[in-house]
Amino acid sequence: MKVAIIGAGIAGLSCATVLTDAGADVALFDKGRGPGGRMSTRRATTGEATVQFDDGAQYFTARDPAFGATVAAWAASGIVARWPAAGSDAWVGVPAMNAPVRVLAESHDVCWGCRIGKVGREGGTWRLDDVDERYDALVVAVPAEQVAPLIASYAPDIAARADATPSEPCWTLMVAFDSRIDIADDCLRGDSGDPIGWAARNSAKPGRGAPETWVVQAGAEWSARHLEMEADAVADLLLAALTERAGPLPGVLHSAAHRWRYARTTGRGDAPFWDRTIGLGGCGDWLAGPRVESAWLSGHWLGRAMIG
Questions:
Q1: How far apart (Å, rounded) are the C-alpha atoms in residues 154 and 173?
Q2: Farthest-apart Cα atoms in the chain, separation
Q3: 121 plus 142 within the same structural domain
Q4: Confidence of residue 78 (pLDDT cuts 50, 70, 90)
Q5: What angle do CA 230, 232, 235 make, to 5 degrees?
Q6: How far apart are alpha carbons 285 and 128 in whole angstroms?
Q7: 230-273 pLDDT, tens per residue?
Q8: One domain for residues 31 and 85
Q9: What angle do CA 43, 46, 50 make, to 5 degrees?
Q10: Is-contact 98 82, C-beta < 8 A?
Q11: What is the pTM of this model?
């Protein structure tokens, strides 16, 4: 079976792993420049040093036995580690949050920087924009907002479900300092309407290091109210909010804000879908729920369904 998967985040790669292990010929297409998705890691240069920020998911859990076994293997390989500051069951990628996604992607044929805007079905096979190959099955593993434009002609009910499951936005500040902030906590939490929904000392995570770096993620309601504001202005507001919570800040080496339009899904535990009659499936956190573990399980169980 030849399978095309649109989206090479944790859900798409989890599905691809099951299919490949069963002998399927799988190709993945992702509009991003490299592995990460919502487990993104960004880098910046400050003088002679390069700093990194986990600007997407801050940590993940492993409560399901199937995902727990995978995380245990990752831990044995040194690409994840526990981070007690976020909770007794919190894990992070090492040396960056995107490490597990990067390792998963190395085992697959992934076309990075490939934006697939249209798909079609001819003679019982699927075709993708600007791709010569034809595929027996198609999997969409993208955010809800990108599902309907791809499959509305073939699965209108699924497209409608995706349209009814919008993602919440998130403004994220990435900031590096020339010395440590004088605050004991490595994590700060707030409410959806606050400029700080979550803030973390990124440099305190396992495998990181100097200089002092912080990631500040605004609450969803606050982000929605300020969604179209200029990034520099948002960075100033979030830096001021961090000052209110942590007290006077040391010198800033680097500061940048990133707007996630589709940050946190509102999915609530739906199973992946698979229509064997036309070879169309879909998975992701927009179905399963807003957790890394949920996205991985969604892709895993879709792969299992596809191989019967």
A1: 40
A2: 66
A3: yes
A4: very high
A5: 110
A6: 23
A7: 999 999 999 999 999 999 999 999 999 999 998 888 878 899 99
A8: no
A9: 40
A10: no
A11: 0.93
